[in-house]
Amino acid sequence: MTTTVQLSEDVLALSTRRSYIEMNARARAAQLLDAGAFRELLGPFDRVESPWLPMQGIVPQWDDGCVVAKGTIDGVPAVAIALEGKFQGGSIGEVCGMKMAIALALARQDCERGIPTRAVLSLESGGVRLQEANIGELVIAEIYAELIALRKYVPVIVVIAGMTGCFGGMSLAAGLASYVVMTRQARLSMNGPEVIEQEAGIEELDARDRPLIWSICGGAQRHATGLADMLVEDDVAEIAHAVRTLFKRGQPARLRSDAHDLYIERLGRLDPAQEWTADQIRAVCKEQMP
Amino acid sequence: MSRGRIWFEALSGSSGRQSDGPGSLLLAEATLGGERVSYVALAPDAQARFPRARGGEVGVEEGWYGARTIRRIIDADGDSTKRPIVTIVDAKSQAYGQREELVGIHLAAAALISAYAEARVAGHPVIALIVGRAVSASFLVLCGQANRVLAFDDEQVLVHAMYKDAAARITRRTVEELDTLGATIVPMAYDIQSFDKLGGLYRLLQVASPDEPNVGTVEQVKLAVIDAIADARRGPRDLSSRLESEGAKQYRKASLIVRTKMAEQWTAQ
Q1: Domain that holds residue A284
Q2: Predicted ipTM of the assembly
Q3: Do A145 and B145 count as a contact with CB atoms less than 8 A apart?
Q4: Rounded to whole angstroms, what are the CA distances from A203 to A199, A200, A275?
């Protein structure tokens, strides 16, 4: 006796999917660029590592947790920058941060010379690296300055896939981006839940309540409330396609970071004396943008 | 009264109160060195709408209204002389709260950073004067995009990624261990002299009795700000003065190596 099993479309889709989340930073950067176009700059064989970590008995990494690769996206010159969440939590130290800032600066210089160069950033980061604290702060400020200068010429796209999430200084970089792409697994938040619980108490936020955390800063909520432009599955092809779609779209009508009137009006519709829920925020956003 | 508010009032001669927006956001116009200058500051506001932003933190209202304030200055000056924007910095940190995250404090902070950077690029001398705390995002937001950063050489002046007790917990060290590390690892130190070594400051100012400004010290600080404005106007409209500094040559060698090697490899085929 034979039984015929009908697989649903969803199950079939899952079986052909290739996870982006499970990839390391180098593989992610390669997937964001056109096939065969990947050329890493200041790669591990150049051995430019953190000078500060070994002084503290911490093993450095030859790429300092940041992969920068030149290539093309849909045939247009591009640079892909990917942070490795598994090295020091994707934290921004001197070398990895400078790699980001200089890559963005070089892309802008090419734009100024008439060679439009796209930039896509795959961010997994807990924020500034506390072992390099104040240099990290200075370098992050330089990343912002270069990101702001580059986005005038070409869209700068931030991809947040998970599972580290995008926190601290890098959440602000996402705020400065022309477009943000997220998966449901990803989180985008300025202060990590543990930091909020520590600073403001467990009544403010219970950092162990994972459903609550994702309802606040997970990809679905960020997309529903206009803080991310595209919500994608954890699939290499889908993420690469989303990035290409957004580059094709060109510059956004208005940068999210320029929309003070919209957000000031939103703050006016909400009462901070009350508790807020994720659904309420979605409702207010809908009211504003029917 | 917070040190930030004290110095805002001493320099601008105004309370800085605005008709709308959060009470924590101070703004005033004043004459300095024969030209019109905008003074900006954040200060604690016990009546703030957002409970987590009552102690002088960078919260969502501070970010969005601050961005609007800076953009209005840019728009008002248009093609005429770009007035200097002087931010008096004494801000504890960013606001830590669930509501803040729900409504996107990362974007509110980015908006103010963006506005400061656009002002600098448009030709406004953007000056940060650190009289107190500039920790974590309050440094990034209020000082990060400034052409020139000045700071008081004083024990209460603090620039850092995180307060010592929190940093100790997260890196699983004791406060004593952090102090020991800070003595040899300059970017981890908590004193402003160490921050100055990294090339992040234009000048470190020795100001007598920084909690009680008098005619003499106010004049001294004003002259320092006038000098910083003039120097900003002479230089490029970017942050390169930091990496070009003597301090960076000594303490940011790795940054300079990255800059050189990346540029070489970028153009190589």
Answers
A1: 259-290
A2: 0.97
A3: yes
A4: 11, 8, 11
